[in-house]
Amino acid sequence: MSLGLLSRNPNFVLLLLPFAVYVGFFNSLSSLLTQVLTPYNFSETESGIAGALLILVGLVAAAVTSPLIDRSKKYLLLIKCLVPIIAICDLAFIWAPGTRSVAAPYVILSVLGAASFSLVPVALEWGAEITWPVGPEAASTICWTGGQLLGGIFIVISDALKEEDEEGEPKGNMGKALIFQAVVACAFVPCALLLGRVGGGARNKRLEVDKAAIDANTGR
Q1: Which of 87, 125, 205, 207 has its CA 20 to 30 A from that of 39?
Q2: pLDDT digits (tens, 9 = 90+) for 62-97
Q3: SS3 of 15, please?
Q4: How confident is the model at residue 118 (pLDDT cuts 50, 70, 90)?
């Protein structure tokens, strides 16, 4: 029953698609980051720092934004802002390793981490709002499962797109994999921008129910 309700909810489908894609690409990039940077003469230490920035900056950003958004309830607005930022970071990262300087990868990955980690709790919370009365665990489980599944698929595809060790400039680079990631990431931006514009709009249904219950109790 829950799956049927979710599959007929256009806003949930539009949320699920970019969520799963971006989580998948985040997992893929974080797993293959050393292979992406090493052909351009980045050391393992520099690659490790890049990966650490991707995650640590993201954690800090999520810790800051989550309580602010929880108070304002502007879930949809933040989703529509963060998704294009993630896509732009994926696009910009195509050229970052080629600069052979740590500045570009460090900055882009920091922004990407901040946007990605901030998006996850907001998207899951908004997903719970628009899918009520379906339990929030159903929507979040489907979103996470989709992201993990696509992450594995993207790793396989990216590895297949890697240049042979004796081919490419530089040899063994993963430029085609980065292009693939950027193209797909940009292709799913419209899904996020359409949120709230289909299916009769989007309401924070769970919040409305909670507010009505509070008002009823107050009225007594």
Answers
A1: 87
A2: 999 988 888 888 889 999 999 999 999 999 999 999
A3: helix
A4: very high
CA 127 from chain centre, in angstroms, equals: 14
Q: What is the CA radius of gyration of the chain?
A: 19
Long-range Cβ contact pairs of 166-175 (< 8 A, separation 24 or more): 168/39, 170/39, 170/40, 170/41, 171/39, 172/38, 172/39, 173/39, 173/40, 173/97, 174/32, 174/35, 174/36, 174/39, 175/94
Distance CA 195, CA 170 (A): 41
Identity at 36, one-letter amino acid code: V
> What distance in Å separates the CA atoms of residue 195 and residue 56, rounded to the nearest whole number?
29
Per-residue pLDDT tens for 128-140? 888 877 777 888 8
Return d(Cα 116, Cα 101) in angstroms, integer: 23
CA pair distance 203, 12, nearest whole angstrom: 12
Query: Chain-wide mean pLDDT for the chain?
Result: 88
The owner of tokens 């595809």 is 157
Predicted TM-score (pTM) of the model is: 0.88
